[in-house]
């Protein structure tokens, strides 16, 4: 009897809940999912920004492969305001839960990405694993591009920037939480991939550069070849190619194993040197000299690779140093290995602009491919 | 009657609970002010408390605190202390529940009113706390067996992630020699205080015997280290301090590639919701039994449902209703900052309460010896 | 002479002592003047006609003990016992022990209840015995005894039900049974207040507390092999006349997920099958609730591809997700119920009409999303993975609870439901045994030994 009473009580309670909560839920078909967003500066007015949202429109038949998306733009003084203003332009509730990509237009990124970046980290429904990127020439243009290979609205950019899709050595990978901590921490600076577009022909994206940020604004954008070397330094087992010249012939190496470690050494008070040790393993992919390759020549070739890669790396590291940014986090490593917590930050600040690099590359050519 | 293995479960649950919410927040807040040393100190302190407690409680086989106090302390003092201890247990679960209500509103169901959610929590906790001690332990065992593999998986994913920044961790570790604050020691010792629930559950232990203290120390230490350093590795040495729920932000930075759910945070949430509900059930069970022990004559627990049982049931309902009402009122008065403050108060208070517990127990042991 | 006689006496006494508490044991003394012959047999295992005609009637026809002695020993199958154990063994096999003077013969009168026994209907296995219990208590006892030839198998007879006076037999292995369970069972049966008992589940319902339960704490089985396995694990079996099911107790949660296949197949396959059943349990309980939670509260949890897929297929559905789910699940329940009641010949037609045509039409009309149809089918199939139908019915009902919780609280509600369910199951007791507990199987067998 007692049980029955309890059961009835529970039932009443649940019915009550339905009334109290007023059925607050909104079905999935009454929501619009924003899959990507972007922000640009407005040319003649520095106080407002142009926000662009890409909305995926679900299709009834998933087999048709047809995708539909909607681009909404809103000029507003802040992102929070824009997100509300844009809601009155659509019939369904906007949901940021599936927003995967945030694009900062180049001119905006050169000013400061902080406002937008802060908002995405603070807001509950935006993910910390969003892919941030700098868009060239501007975010709206890039968002409007849907490559022919895109099967789900707005997915192409997210796929290219993630580990799942293409494995290009020219794409640097980062997440929003990564950018956030790099902005917060001393001794490390954020970097962002740069999404460009292919001029003419069918609409296509081109992600092959990296933007180096001085905490919140873009200082420099590296060229594609530099980006590749940049990735070699930061990604373990990067799938890439390396080239060198030997005896006037051109050789190309397919890298399948790579590792870069470094050590900061204080040579004399106030002066430091960073020793880089890079080990690379791979197979020969292309050679201009069509004769058979002997073992001796292979060793010679390895040496040639060592020298050319070391030169490229050192040039790049000096170039990055001279921009005043520290995307690798040399500073953080320095702080982490020194116990004088009070003074280490100032020491590093004085040391970094004059720091020198010593790069040691060890290329190991495992084979020459199918032919010798 | 249950085997001693349930003692380890009680410890493990409490330790795992402290991977989220207050303990990591406090430890991270103090990361440059002695939290590392605090954790190091907490391990021996926590283990010592546990060891002493187990040594003493085994002198009273099959007896909970209400029975022990009734026998060895003057009536009014025993009752007063039982009420005090019940309050400590009750507040432990209340801060957890209110904290989780906040988390739910933030990450999972912003559409549902937080009070609706809290009512749901309270309903389950009340119904659960009324079960017999054995049943609660059996349920705890099953839930741990389901959840611990998931926690191990998430921990593994976090540590093995290429985005885990060891340099930031090292940077925090270089603050090792900073003198610890009391708060951080109190927070870190809480990880070890799962044993305290034995004050009631000792009734059902069939010859409590605890061995493998080294394993307990190891797991507790690892938990403390994970609670503090995993957020640092993901959110940055400085950045970790900017997050309200460092543990949740850390897990939100993890991505699952091969599953229908992409964001790890939802799995983490479900796991921790389960654990905190079970934890609250255990705490309320202990608190309820203490209050019952204070207002009722000590009787041998009988399984038959006679009229005295019915009376007891009614009393139980009133106690639990009072607890629920107190939590509801508390939740409506608190915001993010006051909740955090109360969490810190609770942790500090708890350390002294634990000490009081040990002293009382020692007193009872002495009384027992002199009588014998 | 006298010592010889006392030896035979001793053997007989030993035999009867072994058979203490064995309710289907018969001991009948035939006497002419001072001469006596004693027949000892298990009445459920022997053919009563054979015993009556060959042993009892003939005794009085011959009217002389020596002649009877010659008559009995002249049967080719009759043997003299070598020792006590052989005697006991043959008794349990269904032979009649004939004691004439100091001689003890074993007379084969085995009753094989093959013809009336039909195949199991509700608990099918792939490569196991197919026999199932009949509606006669004696036949069922015969089937159990044939598979469990031990003198430790005790049987106690009772009659319950004020009007029906249904005969029941309580069976247990004396060495392995938990005496507390047995005592509690007897108490509960004594206190049973019902006029008519016609099926095993009625006893189940009348004896268990609390009465309001969703999950069975006694198991009903129609399989002799499962019954024998459970006897060997130290459980108690209640055999009831007029029903083809026996009650096995105590029964814990895990028992309802054990099919006899687990014993028949190789161990890894057995484990795999069990894992499949538990996954099925989780799926059938949670899938509809998760659908409601994901579509209505937390669409951001799923991968974008899946979210868009669901959104797309739900685009034309005119009502909220929980209505859709309940609507479709009810349709499925109707279908299941209809196919149980329908004659076997039309059953498949109904399923086809209902399942295929209705489902396809509903999606085409845009009343139900495609994903929903997949889900309902999955729920229906996984529900039938649970081998014991009593449990499967409980689960069928429990999933609506989860749907309710998901409708009110979203994902949080599902978690609340899981916790409550685990706690509820853990707090149930089946004759003092915890109903849901990790490692319960190992514990039980250890205690049994």
TrEMBL record, chain A:
Recorded GO CC terms: membrane
InterPro entries given in the database record: GerAC_N (IPR057336), Spore_GerAC-like (IPR008844), Spore_GerAC-like_C (IPR046953), Spore_GerAC_C_sf (IPR038501)
Record-level GO BP terms: spore germination
Keyword Lipoprotein: yes
Highest taxon above the source species: Bacteria
Domain Spore germination protein N-terminal: 26-196
Domain Spore germination GerAC-like C-terminal: 209-369
Transmembrane residue ranges: none
Record's subcellular location: Membrane
Gene3D superfamilies reported in the protein's UniProt record: Nutrient germinant receptor protein C, domain 3
Bilayer topology: Lipid-anchor
Keywords, sorted A to Z: Germination, Lipoprotein, Membrane, Palmitate, Signal
Residue ranges of coiled coil: none
Family stated for the protein in its record: Belongs to the GerABKC lipoprotein family.
Protein name as annotated: Ger(X)C family spore germination protein
Organism: Paenibacillus lemnae
UniProtKB/TrEMBL annotation, chain B:
Membrane spanning residue stretches: 7-28, 34-54, 80-100, 112-129, 136-156, 176-201, 213-236, 256-278, 317-334, 340-366
Keyword Transmembrane: yes
Topology in membrane: Multi-pass membrane protein
UniProt KW Transport keyword: yes
Compartment(s): Membrane
InterPro entries: Spore_GerAB (IPR004761)
GO-annotated cellular components: membrane
Alphabetized UniProt keyword annotations: Germination, Membrane, Transmembrane, Transmembrane helix, Transport
Family annotation (Pfam families): Spore_permease
UniProt-listed GO biological process terms: spore germination
Family membership: Belongs to the amino acid-polyamine-organocation (APC) superfamily. Spore germination protein (SGP) (TC 2.A.3.9) family.
PANTHER family: SPORE GERMINATION PROTEIN A2
Protein name, entry field: GerAB/ArcD/ProY family transporter
Taxonomic path: Bacteria, Bacillati, Bacillota, Bacilli, Bacillales
TrEMBL record, chain C:
Pfam families tied to this protein: GerA
A Gene Ontology term for the protein's cellular component: membrane
Key words of the record: Coiled coil, Membrane, Transmembrane, Transmembrane helix
GO BP, sorted A to Z: spore germination
Coiled coil: 175-202
Transmembrane segments: 236-253, 275-294, 306-332, 367-388, 400-426
UniProt key word Protein transport: no
Entry keyword annotation includes Transport: no
InterPro entries assigned to the protein according to its UniProt record, in alphabetical order: Spore_Ger, UPF0353/GerABKA_families
Domain of life: Bacteria
Family: Belongs to the GerABKA family.
Name of this protein: Spore germination protein
The species this protein was found in: Paenibacillus lemnae
């Amino acid at each position: 009897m007692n049980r029955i009473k309890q059961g009835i009580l529970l039932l009443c309670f649940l019915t009550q809940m339905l009334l109290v909560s007023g059925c607050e839920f909104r079905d999935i078909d009454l929501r619009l999912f924003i899959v990507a967003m972007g922000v640009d500066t407005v040319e003649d007015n520095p106080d407002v920004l142009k926000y662009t949202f890409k909305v995926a429109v679900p299709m009834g038949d998933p087999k048709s492969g047809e995708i539909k998306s909607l681009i909404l733009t809103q000029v507003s003084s802040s992102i929070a305001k824009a997100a509300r203003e844009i809601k009155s332009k659509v019939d369904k509730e906007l949901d940021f839960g599936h927003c995967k990509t945030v694009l900062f237009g180049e001119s905006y990124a050169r000013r400061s990405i902080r406002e937008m970046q802060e908002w995405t980290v603070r807001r509950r429904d935006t993910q910390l694993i969003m892919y941030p990127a700098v868009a060239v020439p501007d975010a709206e243009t890039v968002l409007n591009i849907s490559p022919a290979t895109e099967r789900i609205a707005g997915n192409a950019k997210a796929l290219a920037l993630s580990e799942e899709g293409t494995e290009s050595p020219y794409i640097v990978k980062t997440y929003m939480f990564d950018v956030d901590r790099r902005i917060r921490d001393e001794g490390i600076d954020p970097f962002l991939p740069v999404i460009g577009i292919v001029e003419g022909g069918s609409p296509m994206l081109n992600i092959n550069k990296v933007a180096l940020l001085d905490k919140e604004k873009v200082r420099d954008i590296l060229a594609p070849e530099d980006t590749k070397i940049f990735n070699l330094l930061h990604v373990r087992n990067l799938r890439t190619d390396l080239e060198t010249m030997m005896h006037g012939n051109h050789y190309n190496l397919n890298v399948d194993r790579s590792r870069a470690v470094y050590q900061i050494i204080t040579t004399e008070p106030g002066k430091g040197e960073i020793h880089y040790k890079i080990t690379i393993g791979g197979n020969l992919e292309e050679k201009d000299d069509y004769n058979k390759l002997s073992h001796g020549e292979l060793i010679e070739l390895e040496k040639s690779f060592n020298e050319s890669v070391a030169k490229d790396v050192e040039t790049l590291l000096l170039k990055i140093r001279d921009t005043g940014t520290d995307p690798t986090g040399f500073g953080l490593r320095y702080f982490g290995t020194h116990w004088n917590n009070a003074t280490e930050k100032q020491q590093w600040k004085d040391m970094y602009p004059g720091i020198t690099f010593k790069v040691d590359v060890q290329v190991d050519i495992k084979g020459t491919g199918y032919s010798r | 009657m249950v085997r001693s293995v349930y003692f380890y479960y009680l410890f493990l649950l409490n330790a795992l609970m402290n991977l989220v919410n207050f303990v990591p927040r406090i430890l991270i807040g103090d990361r440059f002010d002695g939290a590392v040393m605090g954790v190091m100190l907490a391990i021996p302190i926590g283990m010592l408390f546990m060891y002493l407690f187990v040594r003493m409680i085994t002198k009273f086989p099959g007896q909970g605190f209400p029975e022990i106090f009734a026998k060895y302390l003057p009536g009014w003092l025993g009752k007063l202390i039982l009420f005090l201890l019940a309050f400590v247990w009750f507040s432990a679960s209340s801060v957890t529940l209110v904290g989780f209500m906040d988390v739910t509103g933030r990450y999972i169901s912003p559409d549902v009113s937080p009070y609706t959610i809290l009512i749901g929590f309270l309903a389950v906790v009340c119904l659960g706390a009324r079960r017999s001690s054995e049943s609660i332990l059996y349920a705890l065992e099953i839930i741990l067996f389901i959840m611990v593999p998931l926690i191990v998986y998430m921990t593994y994913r976090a540590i093995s992630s290429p985005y885990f920044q060891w340099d930031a961790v090292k940077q925090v570790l270089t603050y090792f020699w900073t003198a610890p604050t009391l708060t951080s020691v109190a927070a870190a010792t809480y990880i070890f205080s799962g044993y305290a629930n034995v004050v009631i559950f000792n009734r059902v232990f069939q010859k409590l015997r605890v061995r493998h203290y080294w394993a307990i120390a190891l797991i507790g230490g690892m938990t403390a280290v994970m609670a503090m350093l995993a957020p640092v590795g993901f959110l940055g040495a400085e950045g970790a301090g900017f997050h309200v729920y460092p543990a949740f932000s850390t897990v939100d930075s993890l991505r699952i590639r091969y599953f229908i759910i992409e964001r790890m945070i939802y799995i983490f949430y479900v796991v921790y919701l389960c654990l905190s509900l079970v934890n609250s059930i255990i705490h309320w069970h202990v608190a309820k039994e203490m209050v019952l022990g204070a207002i009722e004559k000590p009787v041998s627990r009988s399984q038959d449902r006679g009229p005295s049982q019915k009376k007891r049931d009614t009393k139980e309902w009133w106690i639990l209703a009072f607890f629920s009402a107190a939590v509801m009122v508390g939740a409506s008065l608190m915001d993010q900052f006051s909740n955090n403050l109360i969490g810190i108060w609770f942790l500090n208070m708890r350390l002294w309460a634990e000490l009081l517990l040990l002293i009382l127990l020692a007193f009872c042991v002495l009384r027992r010896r002199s009588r014998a | 002479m006298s010592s010889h006689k006392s030896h035979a006496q001793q053997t007989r006494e030993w035999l009867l002592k072994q058979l203490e508490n064995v309710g289907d044991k018969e001991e009948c003394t035939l006497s002419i003047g001072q001469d006596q012959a004693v027949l000892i047999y298990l009445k459920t295992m022997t053919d009563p006609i054979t015993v009556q005609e060959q042993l009892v009637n003939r005794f009085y026809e011959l009217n002389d003990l020596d002649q009877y002695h010659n008559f009995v020993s002249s049967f080719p199958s009759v043997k003299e016992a070598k020792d006590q154990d052989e005697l006991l063994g043959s008794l349990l096999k269904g032979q009649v022990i004939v004691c004439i003077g100091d001689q003890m013969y074993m007379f084969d009168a085995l009753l094989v209840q093959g013809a009336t026994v039909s195949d199991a209907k509700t608990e099918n296995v792939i490569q196991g015995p197919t026999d199932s219990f009949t509606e006669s208590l004696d036949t069922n006892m015969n089937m159990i005894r044939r598979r469990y030839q031990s003198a430790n198998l005790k049987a106690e007879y009772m009659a319950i039900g004020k009007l029906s006076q249904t005969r029941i037999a309580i069976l247990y292995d004396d060495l392995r049974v938990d005496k507390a369970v047995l005592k509690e069972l007897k108490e509960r049966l004594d206190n049973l207040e019902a006029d008519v008992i016609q099926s095993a589940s009625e006893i189940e319902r009348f004896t268990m507390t609390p009465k309001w339960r969703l999950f069975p704490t006694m198991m009903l089985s129609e399989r002799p092999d499962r019954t024998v396995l459970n006897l060997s694990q130290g459980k108690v079996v209640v055999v009831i006349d007029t029903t083809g099911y026996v009650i096995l107790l105590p029964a814990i949660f895990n028992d309802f997920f054990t099919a006899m296949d687990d014993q028949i197949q190789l161990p890894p396959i057995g484990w795999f099958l069990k894992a499949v059943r538990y996954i099925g349990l989780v799926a059938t309980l949670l899938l509809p609730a998760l659908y409601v939670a994901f579509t209505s509260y937390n669409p951001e949890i799923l991968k974008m591809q899946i979210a868009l897929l669901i959104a797309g297929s739900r685009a034309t559905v005119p009502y909220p997700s929980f209505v859709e789910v309940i609507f479709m699940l009810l349709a499925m329940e109707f279908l299941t119920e209809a196919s149980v009641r329908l004659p076997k010949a039309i059953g498949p037609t109904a399923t086809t009409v209902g399942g295929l045509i209705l489902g396809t039409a509903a999606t085409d009309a845009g009343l139900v999303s495609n994903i929903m149809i997949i889900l309902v089918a999955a729920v229906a199939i996984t529900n039938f993975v649970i081998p014991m139908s009593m449990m499967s019915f409980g689960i069928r009902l429990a999933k609506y609870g989860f749907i309710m919780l998901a409708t009110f609280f979203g994902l949080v509600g599902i978690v609340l439901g899981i916790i409550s369910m685990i706690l509820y199951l853990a707090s149930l007791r089946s004759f003092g045994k915890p109903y849901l507990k990790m490692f319960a199987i190992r514990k039980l067998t250890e205690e049994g030994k």
